Amino acid sequence: MFGDSLSAAYGIASSLGWVALLEERLKRERSDYKVVNASISGETSAGGRARIDALLAREHPAVVIVELGANDGLRGLPLAQMRDNLAAIIQSAQKSGARVLVVGMRVPPNYGDEYAERFSAAFAQLAKRYKSALVPFMLEGFADKPELFQADRIHPAPEAQPLILERIWPALAPLLK
Question: Looking at the annotation, which residues are catalytic?
């Protein structure tokens, strides 16, 4: 798992985060997969690009879930830079032999509707270009429910974590076979 605070269980016990719930699910299903959560709160696509190769060399993953870009969008960073960074991460993971799942995000229209639309479209474009699995929007189905978020209205509450896993699972499960 290669992501930001949304996957690092920011503001909640890590055991309640969706990545920990994924690990529990894999154990229940008697899967041989080991989950490594290499997510860092505040991570941008540039930060991920800088550390992906060392992580791949150390862990030798079969599957890499890439959930980065939200912090780029919240900071209004150039979309071309985010796409280039995510492309490099995907390419590195694929070259290492890993199957890749790209997890998309949306941003509020603080930087304009065009930026927000181009931002969310970037994930699908990258997944298509690199023939990766895709979850178009990690928070689909509950992003508009404030009761499922922490006080900052950005980070999902513990009650939302199973919903995130259920959003990720259908795209991830085929990669685990």
Answer: 5, 152, 155
- Region 54-58 average pLDDT: 98
In this structure, are residues 154 and 110 in contact, taking their beta carbons and an 8 Å threshold?
no
Q: Is 97 exposed, middle or buried (0-12, 13-18, 19+ CB in 10 A)?
A: exposed
Model confidence over 6-53: pLDDT tens digits? 999 999 999 999 999 999 999 999 888 999 999 999 999 999 999 999
User: DSSP states of 146-171 as a string?
Assistant: GGGB-TTSSSBPGGGHHHHHHHHHHH
Both tokens assigned to 110: 């603080």
pTM: 0.96
> What are the sequence ranges of the domains in the chain?
2-176
Which class is domain 2-176? alpha beta
| pLDDT reported for residue 19 | 98
